[in-house]
Amino acid sequence: MERKTKYVLPWIIYLGSLMGFGLAKFILQGIGVEFRIWVQALFWVLAFLFPALLIGYYLTRIKYKVLAVVVTVIYAVLAVIVFLAGFFYFLFTSPTEYDIGLGMICVAEQSGGYTSDYTYWDKISFFGRKKFEWDEERDIRLLEDKYGMDFEKSSGAYRNEKYPDIAVHILRYPIGSGSELSDDFIDNIQAYYFKKTYEEKGFCTKWSEEEENGITGYRLIVNSEAEMRQASKEAAGMIAGAIEDPIFEKFTGALQVEIEVKGSVRLCSLAFGGAGESDQVERDRAYYTNADHTEKTLEQTYNELLDSLEESEMMEQIREDTDKENQDYFSRMESSYDFLYENELSKQYTTSEKMYNAKGNFYAVLGGDTAEYENEADRPYEVTVVYDRVSDDGDSLLFVMYKKYHEKADTAAGYSVNLDAGEVEEYDVPWY
What we know:
This protein is of the alpha+beta class. Helix content is 43%, strand content 32%. The protein is built from eight helices and 20 strands. The strands form five sheets. Strands 15-16-17-18-19-20 form a six-stranded antiparallel sheet. Helix 1 (2-30) packs antiparallel against helix 2 (37-60) and helix 6 (228-243) packs across helix 8 (291-343). The radius of gyration is 40 Å and the shape is flat.
């Protein structure tokens, strides 16, 4: 009885633990709570290891020692293989948890290919999580944590007392560790200052204000090199007007300048502000409030665009030249063949059909007949003229005429055609 209890008791404890975990999971799901990924992983590891080790222990107790060793080793190898297979399967298929701060978790789950579905959860102690949907309260918590100021919902957007005219919209929620909330607060603040300075000082550089991907874009437009100096002064003035706001001591702003040359456009981003401890960062914060610095950056972007256009134009010219060379080449080839047929081959063959194969190689079919070939009477054949190459001196094009018997061919003759001199010469072609 004691021996049976010794073997049965561990299994009773094991099964009881499984039932306890299952019951706890069922109860928690009833209130919308799930175990964290690491808790689930730990449970399945223990659920496998406990019986695996227990069975391994029983195998070592086999009466015949040699058999016990052999069976135990085989079992251990198989157990390790199964464990590793299960571990890697869980590793690559289970969702991934990311802590996004404020007691919230983002769970990324593969939905096929390289895309993921994201769900959001509140942390429940160290072991659990509870799913939620984003709402006004949570949006405000994220905004206040990011900017360190109070927000409230108004007219379909979020607003702050300091910036009552600035509407804030959530563009994307955090989707991983280190990932921040994406919104248009800074973009709208800088756009407000840019527009204000532009109008108050009567700047004349062309500008555009348009919405793209939910963000209102404000940019200067430079259409020629002659406008560069004026645009640099005005861009520096607009940045100087915005950087005075203390918010740009922590957050980075940017004025976009659109440079257009011959219908091609490139954007130049003039960044300013941002937090930093080094002297270099402190100097760079206000770098583009200096018109000379701004002009150098715009000129660099302009020259890069110009170089890119020149390279594109050069490549286009090369393509045009290559196309013309190819046209001239094929025209010379066909004209040479026409001369060959009219002055030589038409004496024997009444038809000629010019063709190109799948590789673009020229050939012509002159018709066919039957003849004795390899001791076979009335073997059908086809006469084909194939362009071979340019002669060594470059003056003539060489053609080879074949008699093709199904899959086998015999060379009939070779012809050298000098179109400029109006000459056709026949030559022997070695047949291998």
